[in-house]
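Q: Hi! New to this. If I give you a protein sequence and the SMILES for pyridoxal-5'-phosphate, can you show me the bound structure?
A: Yes, paste them in.
Q: Okay, here:
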Amino acid sequence: MADHTTRTYDSILELLPDADNPTPIVRLNKVTGFEHAQVYAKLEWYNPFGAVKDRVAANLVRAAEERGEELENLVEPTSGNTGIGLAMIANAKGYGFSATLSKDVPLEKRAALRIFGTDLVELDDDLCPLPGQPEGAMQRAEELAERPGWRELNQYQNPDNPDAHFRTTGPEIWRQTGGSITHFAASLGTCGTITGTGRYLKQQNPDVKVIGVHPTEGHDIPGVRSRRALGVTEFFLPDEYDAVVEVADADAYHLAKRLNQEESIIAGPSSALALAGALREIPDEPGVVAVVIFPDNVFKYTSSFQRHLPELFPADTLPEPQAVAPANPFAGHLEAAFEFAKHGPDVVDAGTAAAQFDDGAVLIDVRGPAELERARIAGAVNVPLPELSQGRTDGLPTDKDAPVLTLCAAGTRSLYALLLLKAQGYRNVKSVDGGIAAWAAAGLPTEQRSTAGVG
Ligand SMILES: Cc1ncc(COP(=O)(O)O)c(C=O)c1O
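A: Thanks. Here is the predicted structure of the protein with pyridoxal-5'-phosphate bound:
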């Protein structure tokens, strides 16, 4: 029986937090520069497996068990922390666990998962996995979950993710601040933390301000997503937040150093990212009480710190840091072009595209070969996106006024293809909204490769 006063437990799982056993909040006294406003860090590495995502892993499993689902083996795409939480809960409960993740996830996290006995599928994927990449973590997890006895709980779509925070993080903070909280901030990954906690706090007091913080495109902060990559999670709901702030890697790592060296708080990079964004939004006024989620600690990211704060690592003390490509300073502009295109007139629904295709438009499918195996559209020309960006013209119409349609799995790569074609002078290009998934959902014909070309 859990006794939080003596901290005596019969099982490690009894350490999972709730309002009676909260993770601590600690006031920041030096780095805020504030005279009046009180800013507290909620130290999520006090969770039993070391991160905020232990709450989510526990709630995903609890809810599935309560629904009576068979949970023999679990598989999940993860940037590390959900995997670590699920691995340990699976170990405690006797379930199997497999994680699909990018090789860019810090070595410290991948090593920990191996120590915990996880079956690890390491992939050449982005640090923030996106759907529709045939060799990506999300796609692979989906495929692996199709095996009998396997189940993907899917933190990006499962409402038990934000619900974990609605049940625990929110009530803890409300009680810890005696209901005096005025501002709440969190960094954005799946957005379970901000959405679940924010909803609970606003339910208690609609005036509480909720601040989300994300990194720039091409960032190097594990666990969080750039504005574009936030599109994959169903829980990024900016209308429910009062501010969404972007912070550069350099600002986050610099503040992380200060948190460690001046506040003696062993914060990891996504903690500092959240704080850096929050400090831009929180007014320094009497009565302001802010709580910022600090998702995990510095020890999983020593290799990342080595890259971003090389001055802390004299050459003779450690091996050379792994080279990383310098961030492209113009990436944000491409990002903006993508966002304009996404909401612009050149995106057409599947029905409109099918009618234009019937009228003779060239349909360019920019997916890769493995995806074409599953479903394709008869008569479409296949030019994979990487080849298009390398300047392949084979298969494209020579007439730059010819009507062209671009298509992929879900509508992201086809938009990049549209931008590439427009940049090459094609004046009449449209991207198919929702990709082949929307095409099939609209009842339009597709075929399997095995039957393609027959008859
Ligand atoms: C280190 C770290 N920071 C921040 C986050 C973001 O939390 P959420 O997924 O609830 O948005 C995560 C999520 O995995 C994380 O691992």
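A: The two ends are 70 Å apart (CA to CA). Let me know if you'd like me to explain how to read the tokens.
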